[in-house]
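Entry for the shared binder. Reason: the reviewer on the internal report wants the predicted structure included alongside the sequence.
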Amino acid sequence: MLKSMVTSQNLATLQRWIAMADTGFAGDFLEVFTIDYAGHIAGRVHLDLEGLRQTELGFALAFTETVRTVHELLAFEDRALMRITTAARHTGTFRGIAAMGRPICFTALVLYRFRDGRICESWTELDLAGLLAQLTVADDSKT
């Protein structure tokens, strides 16, 4: 298979993944990920496919009105890199923090590795500290 065909197939897979995210992660994760998927978040969290599914569904329950902006999407051979900003409203419990109704916004870089047209591994660096700060900062409007 030519490199450009592989790259196109991988980009199409990423577009399916973004579309799933935009629908609250509805759908079959096996359409996008391999059964032996391995995810790495900020070098500390390691997820298998079920862990990824639970993490993403939990995020969808905690945050609504989500808008994802893909700023860059680069692909080469079996890899793709995405730079993305996510904006949403905190309407459910997240990491023990009760819904506050606040808007949030955070950025992430995700490097994906593909096998046979599906994502088999990913490395995510996201601004979790910035997200948590937005959820825990005092609301000055109530004083």
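Summary line for the report: The domain at 3-138 is CATH 3.10.450.50 (Nuclear Transport Factor 2; Chain: A,).
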